[in-house]
Amino acid sequence: MTPITEVEGRRLSLSNLDKVIYPASGFTKGEVLHYYAATAEVLLPHLRDRPVSFLRYPDGPEGQSFFAKNVPPGAPDWLPTAEVTRSDGATRQVLVQDLASLMWAANTVTEFHTPQWRAEAPARADRLVLDLDPGPPATVVECCRAALWLRDRLRADGFHVYAKTSGSKGLHLLAPLEPTPSERVTAYAKALAVEAEQEFPELVVHRMTRSLRPGKVFVDFSQNAAAKTTATPYTLRARSEPTVSAPVTWKEIEACEEPGQLVFTAGDIAPRVAEHGGDLLAPLFDRGLARALPTGSAR
User: Fold this and answer.
1) How distant is the alpha carbon of residue 145 from its chain centre?
2) pLDDT score for 4
3) How many degrees, rounded to 5, is the angle at CA 228 between CA 208 and CA 31?
4) Where are the alpha helices (DSSP H) in the chain?
5) Which residues of 140-153 are buried (b: 16+ CB within 10 A; e: fewer)?
6) Where's the DNA ligase D polymerase domain (predicted)?
7) Distance separating alpha carbons of residues 227 and 86, to the nearest angstrom
8) What tens digit of pLDDT does each residue of 143-157 get?
């Protein structure tokens, strides 16, 4: 029998709680749900008001996975949604606004991916993101070298810059913005990536071409585009272990000498939130820290 529970007055059917989702560690679906419930206080602000895309992997990272944007059939009628205009027309996407909608989504076993804009201001980004992706044999250690230069470069333009792991191999850098058309943010981010490659041609590449990437850090600026999404802070990832896209400090980035130093799993997050007194990315919500893009060029 499928367990029925009530979350904030909403009835939810939670299924297969003993199913092992991460075989390498024996991490079950019930533990996935517990992780998201325990992390809701810091996760929900990053999801709220942003149309969510889901990477679902109900049979674990080794099973079939699929990316979903539309509201799925059978979704409860109380689930918050927003109309989103895409190149192929208008559709509706889920908004994860509260613990009930978070638990409904978590029950499908998912990664959460969100755009840089909110539903009430589509295609107007309120944050900038740079995705640093290492091409083997480069690792997150090389990403840290690139991240420090990009941090200083963004600071020179007046931005407050924060970082998180991707939960996979790399790093994400984020900066709060005054709401800005996504195409302008993309152009600015591309100029930064090109500049980084010019400064460190042995370390950085700004083009996605696979043949250019071995041993280098690809600075992906494209996730600022209105149609793109980025792994949401605190989401679990579909990896062999229940790794998390975890906020990190600049001291941790400066001190990173081994890839394992910046790998965090579900069990690490509650102690880290407690240690740091809350969400390291909370300043992203401080509109007093938001900055406008510089006029003219990337500088």
Assistant:
1) 21
2) 74
3) 105
4) 29-47, 99-106, 140-156, 182-199, 250-255, 266-275
5) bbbbbbbbebbbeb
6) 28-279
7) 7
8) 999 999 999 999 999
